[in-house]
């Protein structure tokens, strides 16, 4: 590969890294970030896909962390969008199981049955 092409690739990779860092670490933002939401709820995959009868302790802990970090309507809508993206890539997700995680984990908040088509802008104070 030519030196010029290597420099172009290096600049492109650097820009992509800066963009990713900017998205995942917005200064002054307390909104939940998608990487955090997905990390918190990844242990719930076995439950929401019907492979486990109850959410695991790790799933419940992640859901508790999400409930604590999503304080405003905007936070909740952001978290919903993250869940919606993650659900879109998973086969056999039962939306009713998504909404049952808080109850199963004894957490005082509620989640809607989020699907690929769910409109996260409808989330207001009634959820969480």
UniProtKB/TrEMBL annotation:
InterPro entries: Bifun_inhib/LTP/seed_sf, Bifunc_inhib/LTP/seed_store, Plant_nsLTP. It comes from the Eukaryota. GO terms for biological process: lipid transport. SMART domains: AAI. The keyword Ribonucleoprotein does not apply. Pfam families: Tryp_alpha_amyl. Keywords: Disulfide bond, Lipid-binding, Signal, Transport. Residues 1-24 form the signal peptide. Residues 34-120 form the Bifunctional inhibitor/plant lipid transfer protein/seed storage helical domain. One of its GO terms (molecular function) is lipid binding. Plant non-specific lipid-transfer proteins transfer phospholipids as well as galactolipids across membranes. May play a role in wax or cutin deposition in the cell walls of expanding epidermal cells and certain secretory tissues. Belongs to the plant LTP family. This is Non-specific lipid-transfer protein. It comes from Cannabis sativa (Hemp). The lineage of its organism: Eukaryota, Viridiplantae, Streptophyta, Embryophyta, Tracheophyta.
């Amino acid at each position: 590969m030519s030196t010029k092409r290597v420099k172009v690739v290096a600049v492109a990779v650097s820009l992509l890294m800066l963009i990713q860092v900017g998205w995942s670490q917005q200064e002054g933002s307390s909104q939940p970030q998608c990487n955090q939401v997905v990390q918190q709820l990844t242990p719930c995959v076995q439950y929401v896909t019907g492979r486990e009868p109850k959410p695991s302790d790790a799933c419940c802990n992640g859901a508790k962390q999400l409930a604590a970090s999503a304080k405003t309507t905007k936070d909740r809508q952001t978290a919903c969008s993250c869940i919606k993206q993650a659900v879109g890539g998973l086969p056999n997700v039962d939306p009713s199981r998504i909404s049952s995680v808080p109850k199963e984990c004894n957490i005082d908040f509620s989640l809607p049955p989020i699907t690929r088509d769910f409109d996260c802008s409808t989330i207001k104070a009634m959820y969480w």
